[in-house]
Write a structure and sequence with these properties.
single chain; about 240 residues; alpha+beta; eight-stranded antiparallel β-sheet; globular
Length: about 240
């Protein structure tokens, strides 16, 4: 084989390998859409000059085989004064289970919000004015169910909740069971296809209509949009 031909083949292989790397790189960085505070609402009044909010990615991607997904949860202080000691909670509901949040501690089962399956508490000693702090979240999502996540921002002792995003759903109305991964949109109820057919299973809607204590639906009907914080259950967290 001539040296010119060998050089041409080698060059083609390098080009192909480089193209493959570029494709994987784009795919990995496209999992999360623009950050959004959709589903968020102020609860207890924050100190003067403190304006706390949270954001979640607009899009996440769930591996269809392992059910694994990851996302970034961010708490922000858009005010003019430092926040003081606060904490961010990351709580999973229904088909969405929070497995780990970097730098945070698991919430004991007895202290989880009613209806949730998992949660982590992230202490923030102080969030300066105009600053934000982000946390890497590892989770699983059962694509045969609906799935929600909740991000309350509280005082360090948990007695007040200044802001709460959620429980807000991730989901798709166009499932992709044969694809390697399924993209889910923030604020969209998941509508999975039932096994062996095209009929949609009753996974999330009925749960949302259960009485108070099962999913918080009656509170939502009362106009608090899923804010499950209650002075009557001091051992429970928000959501």
């Amino acid at each position: 084989m001539s040296s010119r031909r060998m050089t041409t083949i080698a060059g083609s292989l390098v080009t192909a390998a480089f193209s493959t790397v570029m494709i994987f790189s784009v795919t990995a960085s496209a999992d999360e859409g623009p950050a959004s505070s959709k589903g968020g609402k102020a609860v207890d009044e924050a100190p003067a000059g403190v304006e706390l909010t949270t954001t979640l990615p607009g899009t996440i991607s769930v591996d269809n085989s392992s059910q694994k997904t990851d996302l970034t949860a961010t708490v922000k202080n858009d005010g003019s004064k430092d926040s003081g000691k606060i904490r961010l909670l990351v709580v999973g509901f229904d088909g969405m289970t929070v497995k780990n949040v970097q730098g945070c501690s698991p919430i004991e089962e007895k202290d989880l919000p009613e209806g949730s399956n998992s949660g982590f508490a992230c202490p923030v000693d102080n969030l300066a004015a105009g600053k934000s702090k982000s946390y890497a979240v590892d989770a699983t999502f059962d694509l045969k169910k609906t799935g929600k996540i909740c991000l309350p921002v509280q005082t360090g002792d948990g007695k007040k909740t200044f802001w709460q995003q959620g429980p807000v759903p991730f989901g798709t109305t166009n499932p992709s069971p044969n694809a390697p991964a399924t993209p889910l949109l923030l604020g969209t109820d998941n509508k999975p296809v039932a096994p062996g057919g095209d009929e949609l299973p009753k996974t999330g809607v009925e749960r949302d209509l259960l009485p108070l204590g099962a999913a918080g639906a009656s509170l939502m009907a009362a106009g608090v949009a899923g804010l499950w914080w209650s002075q009557r259950r001091p051992r429970r967290t928000a959501c």
